[in-house]
Amino acid sequence: MTYLLSLLDKSPIETGLSAADALRATVKIATRAEELGYHRFWVAEHHNMSNLASSAPEALIAYLLARTSRIRVGSGGVMLQHYSAYKVAETFNLLASLAPGRVDLGVGKAPGGFPLSTRALQLAVDPSRKPDFASQLSDLNTYLAADPGYDGAHATPFPPTAPERFLLGASVESAELAAEKGWELVFAGHLNGDPDNLRKTFEVYERASGGKRPILALAAFAAESEEYARERVGKLRIVKLFLPNDQTVNVGSEEQAAEFARQAGVTDYRIEEKVPSVLHGTAKQIRNELDEFHRRYGVKEFVLDTPALSTADRLASIELLAAERLSLVA
User: Model's pTM, two decimal places?
Assistant: First the structure.
């Protein structure tokens, strides 16, 4: 089976440790991932989260590029609703000028935080003039094209190789938009693993893009024994918050759900505690599952999100998976 394997890291803050410890762990995992032959290493964007340290992926990407030499590094992803497309293009063109051929720009629609941080990020934005997400992707295409003949603002510096562009989503609408704008689709299976939705989204993207297949993001944890993996993953929980406006949000605890509702200004809400969908077991068992996704859907690359476990567990997991030789590139 031939497919690439990449990683997504959220810089989780372990109990009793600090955000600085979490970021050091992310750097350690990234450098080890390069040694093991993983294809990409992406970092996330979460705002005002007490349990996650990566709020500015572009800053962390720059540091990771400086600490590595071969592995592609990128965002999984920039939460585009908060930012000017021009500024995002400038930032990633600069990164791609520092490390040509190694920079990925992944973008998403979610806020990546609670209502207060969203309002703080968008304080200077006039809602009546705010472009929609599709328009922002079009603007990014223009700025990243580095066309000297373009008569608008140039997002300099122009890198020798443009950043690769990825849209993170988990719906048919995301597939259609990614294909229309010429972006690679990353299906967020770690957030929405519904098999019927996955199949439909893959089919729509393949048809609309002229035969391309999405990258598939999944949560995965490998251990020496199935029992240990089950025990560690079995302790994980997510809380799904349902708000009166039909908005749903996944958070890490009942306390976070109550705080999100408070910041949103609502008291009428409900919650459901759920076990997150995580591939777990031995590396061989996970390989078999990835092989099946590859066989059934033609997946050519997986981005694996390691759950918020200890640094030792996360490192052991990526080492075990690499030892299974999951078609990694050196």
Answer: 0.94
